[in-house]
Design goal:
This protein has about 425 residues and is mainly α. About 75% of the residues lie in helices and about 0% in strands. The radius of gyration is 20 Å and the shape is globular.
Length: about 425
């Protein structure tokens, strides 16, 4: 297939898939946790943490998934399609069996399937999108995803407001979104992954040891990512749990209001700024870009958890959304700037593995601290400090941030 045909076919189905991805994103960002807090009175901090960290399990398992796909010799798109189909099945079971254990386990499996596809999809982008178009085309599909997320956040919030028992219908919609994603993924051009030789499923982590720039960036992301992943689910807890005292017109915030502040407003900001960040990713020094985004995340977190007015929450939501729009592009595509072309999935699986590590532990720490005597304002300042520490690791690497480095020469382990 000619390059132009691969680009067009991938871009066509990615635009359709973006609609479903936006709907699925609202599940992870807002509705699954909102359902646990408001719909299951017996849900404790561990249940909340598991639901909030489900996607992180998929990131943690990503090197193992990449290894299995490599060994199977499946085209990458076939593997991503089957993972999405498993996510659809999980949501269907959650809708049919609305009990807390099923809901928690199903949420973890579905969101893990969604996130485990990330390094595989990055490989598809590497193969099918030219270097000088990758950021722009990715940001255009992100815009569709964001618009879908913003619209569905509003719709889902309206559905659940005053009627949390309707959540089963919402779960069926999420199942349908996963099924449609599976259909679109299966039609993207792809080929089997490059065989690296070793059999250990986490062998991709060797790149963290052997590639200094990759290692420094991962360290930064561990500090910054732990901070943001710790505070992100607490936005819902902060607004939905009566103990924090948020009321509007003398009543607790409705699901629609919470969805507006956590989903709609940040996604509108993401939508407007996404093409700008995509353009900057293709042209700007990556590490300067990442430092700028880190500053935005730090300010957004502090503004949200120190504000005591709706106006402050709206401003914080906008700042968070602006930073998140750049984070979408930077997090998803940065390895394409630094990894050898046939190692993009390996590098990305290493990146997502560490995302999973922090994503699994951050919500547990967050909800355990929130259930203790530590205030959310104090936790916000802790997160602010972690982001500053992580950002410090990037300054020495700025000189490396303009273009792809030469392929890293690595000594492969012999096959066992």
């Amino acid at each position: 297939m000619r390059t132009e045909e691969r680009v067009e076919l991938t871009f066509r189905y990615e635009r359709w898939r973006a609609v479903a991805a936006g709907v699925i994103e609202t599940a992870a960002a807002t509705f699954l946790l909102l359902i646990v807090v408001r719909g299951f009175a017996d849900a404790g901090p561990i249940s909340k943490a598991l639901v909030a960290g489900g996607g992180s399990l998929g990131f943690f398992l990503a090197p193992w998934v990449v290894s299995l796909v490599e060994a199977s010799r499946w085209p990458v798109s076939k593997a991503t399609s089957r993972l999405a189909a498993l996510g659809a099945l999980s949501f269907l079971m959650m809708a049919l069996l609305p009990f807390l254990p099923v809901f928690v386990v199903g949420s973890v499996i579905a969101m893990a399937c969604s996130s485990a596809t990330v390094p595989l999809m990055t490989q598809i982008y590497q193969e099918n999108y030219p270097d000088n178009q990758r950021g722009r085309k990715f940001s255009l599909t992100i815009m569709i995803r964001i618009a879908a997320a913003a619209i569905f956040s509003e719709l889902g919030g309206w559905i659940l407001s005053g009627h949390i028992e309707r959540f089963q219908w919402l779960l069926l919609v999420f199942a349908g979104a996963f099924a449609f994603s599976s259909y679109c993924m299966a039609r993207c051009p792809s080929r089997p992954l490059h065989v690296s030789g070793g059999k250990h499923p986490y062998r991709a982590l060797k790149f963290v040891i052997k590639d200094r720039v990759f290692r420094q960036t991962i360290i930064c992301w561990m500090f910054m990512g732990f901070a943001t992943l710790m505070m992100a689910p607490l936005r819902v807890e902060y607004l939905a749990n009566p103990k924090y005292g948020w009321v509007l017109d003398g009543k607790p915030l409705t699901a629609a209001t919470i969805a507006l502040l956590v989903g709609v407003i940040p996604n509108v900001a993401r939508l407007i700024l996404s093409p700008v960040w995509g353009w900057l990713f293709d042209r700007m020094n990556f590490f300067v870009l990442r430092i700028t985004l880190n500053a935005g995340f730090a300010l957004g977190i502090m503004a949200f958890f120190t504000s005591r007015s709706m106006t402050g929450l709206v401003i914080a939501a906008i700042v968070y959304g602006i930073s998140n729009s750049g984070g979408d592009v930077a997090w998803s595509l940065w390895v394409t700037k630094f990894a050898p072309p046939d190692r993009v999935a390996d590098y990305m699986s290493g990146h997502t593995f560490f995302t999973g590590v922090r994503g699994i532990f951050a919500p547990v720490v967050a909800f355990q601290l929130a259930s203790s005597n530590i205030s959310l304002v104090t936790m916000g300042w802790i997160s602010f400090g972690l982001i500053l520490i992580g950002t410090g690791f990037l300054f020495p690497e700025i000189k490396m941030g303009h273009s792809r480095r030469a392929a890293v020469v690595l000594v492969e382990e012999p096959s066992e």
